[in-house]
Amino acid sequence: MRIWSLHPKYLDAKGLVALWRETLLAKNVLEGKTKGYKNHPQLDRFKATLKPINSINYYLQKVWDEANTRGYNFDRTKFVEIEAVEFIDVTNGQMDFEIQHLLLKLKKRDIQKYSTYINNDHFDVHPLFKIIAGGIEEWEKI
């Protein structure tokens, strides 16, 4: 399971669809609707918020926004629209790790997107997150 801290606009088609599906699974886990993945490290940052379900719904909302912009038909009824939510901290080290991870994926799957982003010196974070100083997050599997 990968719930990117990066803004979903950087993902290729395959990556965006995978993110949608994996985040829907994460939502089901947080809602107690499935037994699997209950202790998945990627969920720790959502569980640490005051309202984990609101946080995951907001995350899904922004993924849906990106999919909608691209003309994809993701099911809007799969999340509840949230106006305001507390930010979740993500370290700049985690962001650097995710950027490199994404670039490796894009190099294999979408060379045009890879060429677009390989020389970027700035990548936006998903709107749920706020960047703080630090290394790679403890929950990241390296």
List keywords for this structure.
two-stranded parallel ribbon, 2 strands, 142 residues, mainly alpha
Task: Characterise this structure.
Strands 1-2 form a two-stranded parallel sheet. The two termini are 13 Å apart. The longest helix has 18 residues, at 13-30. Helix content is 46%, strand content 6%. It has one domain. It has helices at 13-30, 44-47, 52-69, 92-109, 111-117; strands at residues 88-91, 129-132. The protein has 5 helices and 2 strands; from the N terminus they run H-H-H-E-H-H-E.
Summarize the entry for a quick read.
The protein has 142 residues and is mostly helical.
List the topology elements.
Blueprint: H1 13-30, H2 44-47, H3 52-69, E1 88-91, H4 92-109, H5 111-117, E2 129-132
Parallel strand pairs: 1-2
| Total of DSSP H or I helical runs spanning 4+ residues | 5
Number of strands: 2
Query: Unreliable runs, pLDDT <50, ≥5 residues?
Result: none
* Sheet with the most strands: spatial strand order: 1-2
Structural class: mainly alpha
Please write the string of helix (H) and strand (E) elements.
HHHEHHE
Helix content: 40-55%
Computed Rg: 15 Å
Mean pLDDT: 95
Sheet with the most strands?
Answer: 2 strands, parallel
Number of domains: 1
Strand content: 5-15%
**Terminal-residue CA separation:** 13 Å
Question: Which outline best applies?
Answer: globular
